[in-house]
Amino acid sequence: MAHSAPQNAGIRFIKSSLCGGGECIEVAWLEDGRVMVRDSKDTTQRPLVFTQPEWQAFVQGVKIGEFDAHPS
What we know:
This protein is α+β, with helices and mostly antiparallel strands. The chain is built from one helix and three strands; from the N terminus they run E-E-E-H.
């Protein structure tokens, strides 16, 4: 579940070195442990904010392939 996002000023977002065309998601870690995620194509939009347990559940799902594309 996404939570309200703090202001972006001074927050350092990063994106994966595997991002090909430069249009990827960007991630920032906040001092309180929450994780912010935004679309690099439109950084003016409010980012999504996740708790540490929410983020860890997502990362683990990615690692085991839960979100891989499946043919129809």
